[in-house]
Design a protein that fits this description.
Elements lengths: L9 H4 L6 H13 L5 E2 L11 H11 L14 H15 L9 E4 L2 H12 L5 E6 L3 H9 L3 E6 L10 H8 L5 E7 L11 H14 L2 E5 L21 H4 E6 L12 E5 L1 H14 L5 H12 L4 H22 L12 E5 L6 H12 L1 E2 L1 E2 L10 E5 L4 H12 L5
Parallel strand pairs: 1-10, 3-4, 3-5, 5-6, 6-7
Antiparallel strand pairs: 2-8, 7-8, 9-12, 11-12
Length: about 400
Amino acid sequence: MTNLLFEVSQRLHKLPPYLFAKIDKIKQEEIQKGNSLISLGIGDPDLPTPDFVIDRLVRAAKNPQNHQYPSYWGMLEFRKAVARWYQSRFGVKLNPESEVLTLIGSKEGIGHIPLAFVNPGESVLVPDPGYPVYHAATLLAGGHPIPFALKEKNKFLPDFGEIERQIQSSTKVKILFLNYPNNPTSASASLEFFKEVVSFAKKHQIIVCHDNAYSEIFYDHCPQPSFLQAPGAIDIGCEFHSISKTFNMTGWRVGFLVGNPKIIDGLAQVKTNIDSGAFNACQEAATEALNHSEPFCSNLRRIYQERRDILIPALQATGLKCQKPEATFYAWARLPEGYPSENYVLDLIRNQKIVATPGNGFGQEGEGYVRFTFCSEASVLKQVAEILRKTRYF
């Protein structure tokens, strides 16, 4: 047999090393030893999808027409449901035919949108720390990522004055990625902040891509805004959303993009050439979810708030600095100065059998922080709290 050299493309070489490979290796070693691990590392809801959504899926799956190729843009029924939900939840009016696009999960849309608007060598502003897909999608499109720091002193909001200095000598900046409520920092943003974003984007002629996947996971009666609520936002931007976190449907892969119709159309052109749309039965079930989101979402928030109020004091008791978040199901905990994130996480796995995520996995500015999730039952989090209270590291 001829030996072939299967050399991957240069774009793959540009992707950062997979930090979590070492953590996964340690996890597997512990499991092979017979040790049980408590995982607070992955933001994947442990709660079940609501029954009324599953019932709609079952009915939809029995319709033979739903097993044919779906529309590239998505079912109009689902897009109308998205528009109604945005009107009801945020007071934002959308045209379901031109301002709503169905996605195979919001991650797919985020991963593809640079292909629609970024030419090789052009720049994209990505938050640091931030969801790694923003950075990876830019590189895979041949773009140049410009990380901008999210610092605790600024409540993990960007400093637009500093960003302006960063981009003075850069190639054309095409996209600004934002994400509030934020993963991994759990920070929230106000409508006043989004007004500032609109002003900055219009000044520099930049497309704003806001990731709003955690808008419905909020606490203490503090609903989170949509970027599109800001005056003029739809002129320069779009918003990614998903049913994954809101309805415990991460495996179903249904999301949506809303906003400026030219931005929507650009991503739709990419999708037309790359995928064949989301399964219609899943879109029907997602329609049911959006049409009957309450009281399900209220109860979901109650559960996560109970979990938050168990875990945060336990983290603080170990010597970690950790604010109680207004939204998301993440705790973003700061280690003492000079203590590496990876070292802490590996030690936590080996000695306490608890899995968390090192902050530097989300970017350079994440070093010195650790992310924990609330995606475990209250009884498990109470067990974690007891373990942590007996183990004061600092």
